[in-house]
Specification:
2 copies of one chain form a homodimer.
Chain A lengths: L13 H16 L6 H8 L3 H7 L3 H21 L9 H14 L5 H4 L2 H9 L4 H29 L7 H22 L3 H17 L18
The first copy, chain A, binds a DNA duplex (30 and 30 nucleotides) through helix 3.
Protein name (chains A, B): TetR family transcriptional regulator
Organism (chains A, B): Litoreibacter meonggei
GO molecular function (chains A, B): DNA binding
Amino acid sequence: MSRPTKNSPERGDARTRLLEAARDVIRKKGFAATSVDDLCQSAGVTKGAFFHHFKTKDSLGVAAANYWAETTSAFFASAPYHEPDDPLDRILAYLDFRKAIIDGETFEYTCLVGTMTQEVHDSAPAIRDACSDSIFGHAATLEADIQAAQEQRCINVDWSAESLARHTQAVLQGGFILAKAAGDPNLARESVDHLIRYFRQIFNVADTASQKEYAKPKET
Amino acid sequence: MSRPTKNSPERGDARTRLLEAARDVIRKKGFAATSVDDLCQSAGVTKGAFFHHFKTKDSLGVAAANYWAETTSAFFASAPYHEPDDPLDRILAYLDFRKAIIDGETFEYTCLVGTMTQEVHDSAPAIRDACSDSIFGHAATLEADIQAAQEQRCINVDWSAESLARHTQAVLQGGFILAKAAGDPNLARESVDHLIRYFRQIFNVADTASQKEYAKPKET
DNA sequence: GACAGCATACCGACCGTATAGTATGTATAT
DNA sequence: ATATACATACTATACGGTCGGTATGCTGTC
């Protein structure tokens, strides 16, 4: 909150501070409800700094989506879920990891680009496209492992690795909405649990505490 | 777009027209980006009418969420997916139905209360609660059938009917986000397909074109 | 190594407009 | 006559964006 003075060490990173402020404030209040002044105050910079770095509020939106894409890419690339040798194990580790990082305040675990997409998909194509790139770019990082696991373990599948990768993101995004509605991150984790169960089912891998037993359908 | 005159037959339904305008415009532009004037213009009424029926813009938001809850409840209650005798068949018919109504322009098939939840969850508790009631109220209509199907066909389950009902809504909401991001309703339908496959798996029911064959896991 | 010249980074007052909300008046139904 | 259902004109403010200015650092020249 301390404003950088003329010769403060923070000089030079107003842009980054604004992008970080955007990341957090927009996740709390949404894009349209977040004013330029909100962002400046939260970043501890002035309006002059804002419009020095960003031509318009919308261009800040694009930059924020790209910043999100970059930082989350790096974050996931260095995450430990890539360690297992088996591709399916990597996928399950990914899902466990996604579940583990759903914690704290809503704005800390929800997805900036998912939030912005909802608001601007029809009115700000530039922002929407940047958000779209981030979402589908991340989904694409899962495809190779899904494809490998599919080839290794499944026959006669009627789904593509691409669609399943996208589905994982849909489940996460939807879980965030329910979590916001109820004010409870457990609802997002709960959906990831169902998704994990789906993966175990379609890849035919037993859970530690499995539900592999079935009752014979009774006639009603 | 035609404004009702003093003695036009539309007199008396400004409130409904505003709620319908809210339903459509907010799904396009989002709540914050939708101005009161936008709504008045779209409904063909004046500001006086707006603030006669709604104390504030936020109270319109609450009313719109409640209107959505009422109209969608009636819509789903009279839908044909309740016909099958078997509870699991009813659930699968529900999911087919949800898939079938994902069509046309984005604002025609997406969920008003999901959209609003994203925006206002932190800043307008009254709206969020109304949205929350709509989402979880609808999810609750699925619980009895899920519970019945579970008791009929599953043993040793580690999931509750309640959580699975919520998960269906999460998948739908998430599918809408991806559809908005890509501008393509197919992405929402695709996620429903995965959800249907999940239901078939956990309830152990064969698909017409099944993927019940599995390859023996190869060593990598 | 001092200094001119220049670009970048930022400041903060200001502007025009859009926005939520109000005040007051009027037509219609009961 | 009174309440309801609007219509119209108006207000205060918040908002995105502009503009002239200043501080800081870099670069080449002598």
